[in-house]
Write a structure and sequence with these properties.
Helix content: over 70%
Number of strands: 0
Largest sheet: none
Distance between the termini: 71 Å
Oligomer: single chain
Bound molecules: zinc ion
Structural class: mainly alpha
Radius of gyration: 21 Å
């Protein structure tokens, strides 16, 4: 493992958001992972952001449910109207 593949805290912070959304290339994801394994500070930041994103996701999921139900009802109404 050469030093070239190592990233510092600034680079890790820049990649972190994409890393948590799993939008990084495997190469970059590995770099972040390796940095988090060595750097307690960045590891804690990553954990905090991950939990924040999880909570955000849960909230959007619960918000999406009524919309999906409404869409189903509207589709059923449209189908009933079309059939009549
Ligand atoms: Zn760091």
């Amino acid at each position: 493992m050469s030093d070239e593949t190592r990233i510092n805290c600034t680079e890790a912070a820049e990649l972190l958001a994409d890393y948590l959304k799993t939008e990084l290339t495997p190469d970059n994801a590995e770099r972040v992972q390796r940095h988090l394994a060595r750097c307690r500070h960045c590891f804690q930041t990553a954990e905090l952001e991950r939990r924040f994103l999880e909570r955000l996701e849960q909230r959007t999921t619960t918000l999406r449910c009524p919309d999906a139900a409404r869409a189903r009802i509207l589709a059923a109404l449209a189908a009933a109207r079309g059939g009549a």
